Amino acid sequence: MKYSKQDNPRVLILVPTRELVVQVVDEIEKLASYINVRVLGVYGGTNINTQKQAVAQGQDIIVATPGRLFDLAVSHVLQLKSIQKLVIDEVDVMLDLGFRHQLLNIFDILPDRRQNIMFSATMTDDVDELITDFFIKPQRVTVAVSGTPLHNIEQSRYDVPNFYTKVNLLEHLLSDDTVYDKVLVFVAFKKLADKLFDELEERFPGQACVIHSNKTQNYRLRSIEQFRSGEHRILIATDVMARGLDIENVSHVINFDTPNFPENYMHRIGRTGRAEQQGHALTFSTEKEQEAIKEIENYMSKNVSLLKFPDAVEVSKELIEEERPQIRERNNPTKRTDEDSAGPAFHEKKDKNKKENLGGSYKFKIAAKYKKPKTRGDKNYNKRNKRK
Known about the structure:
The chain is an alpha/beta fold. The chain has helices at 18-31, 48-56, 66-74, 91-96, 100-109, 125-134, 163-174, 190-203, 217-229, 239-242, 262-269, 290-300, 362-370, 376-387, and strands at 11-14, 39-42, 61-64, 85-88, 115-118, 153-159, 183-187, 208-211, 234-238, 252-255, 279-285, 305-306. The radius of gyration is 30 Å and the shape is globular.
């Protein structure tokens, strides 16, 4: 099916994750319920042919992740020549995730005359460079200075020695399901998210769910919906997966680990205390994470109050693999050191490997030396001579 002029989309909205695509489409459909506006969300991990058919029916607004949008555009199914407005949400995350190259490719196939609108929670150097290089006379609108702590979020922290003690502390807190009725738990890595989910599933069966990039699209959307509806009261998430998610009435955000960057801390705790409601943010910090706490406090110009560790919580001595000290061999005479292995070879070449390539046709030299035929005709000639 070919496009007519009115079938081409006029507004393009780019977001970093599939979950945000679904969320933005839902909100636009609510706003446009009484007007004739067609909106479509496209993202990777699903059948591209189904999305091609939906695009061919004609859309006014496209909400997309950069990768899938570029695939549709390159296949000439999606025409972008009529785009009037380009909206990029969470642009700082886009650049952190390595979408810069894809964004530049998309800029190249968009019409020159368009309005660009970008939303970023933090103004990083990469974002500033993108604005300077590609936008004409940009205007910056600042809602709040980066690092401004939210006045309606109570922030506090615990000093906790290791993973399993953190699990014990989390179990102690979550046991009060009246206070901790809708809890978003942030972890740094996918592997850690799955490990924590297994631990909580033993202690609170059927009350927790988890999202990260290794989970299927349907699994992630189902987990978010179960948490949003209250079917599950605990959602374990990595930073990227929960970025920009708007879930109402989150009672607590718990940082199971302390983020390395203060900006990530601000994004995490911003999931609670939304719409001027009172929110609570708790952070668990090991000894190695104390420096990160100081950076967060300096970034906000505010101290995060330290709470007394509960006496009822057992302090575990068991360590996970990431927490165990690395064992280094000492005084091993057979092990090479870095100095020994500096260079392309560890021994002197043998004489037979010191041959020098003097150029010329190696094939013909070998043929002459071993009387090997160059062609099939020569082979037959050699056979006849051999018989004589």
